[in-house]
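subagent[fold] <- orchestrator: predict structure for attached chain, return tokens only, no commentary.
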Amino acid sequence: MILVPGLRIPELIARLGHLGMVMLGLLYVYSFTAGIATLTLLTMAGGQDPILRVAMAGFGALIGDLILSYLMREEINGEISELARERIVQMILGILPPRFKGETLKISLACLLIASPLPTELGAALLASVRRLRVREMVLIMCLLHTAGLSSILLLGTL
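subagent[fold] -> orchestrator:
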């Protein structure tokens, strides 16, 4: 993982300090860069204050999710409605109790995807598609979930 000749990505991020952690948080959100960001976070687990690192990376991830949510809020509702009509989805939804269908299912899946070290694009899009969820509530949920996910990655890196 060499970005600049003789300078590896973790070293570059370390030189950038807090801005580097915010950049890692932004990279953590998107599918093509989530793996690189996760591995870099794992290699940088030791060192500076871990709480501050999680806060900075979480802030970057939140910015990335807000950008995704803003761009996808209108588009995703049509896609979800179309997907809900698929046969396999109908079978799965038929198994679930009625209270877990609809927005509860969207929120649950979104939380699972956002908190995991997987790319969070789908989770952010699902959360953005919930109409009754205000932006403030969505920001708080995303922030808490990213904090939990990033904390687990940094904790795993210290083992």
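orchestrator: received. Logging for downstream: The chain has a mean pLDDT of 77. Residues 2-158 form one domain.
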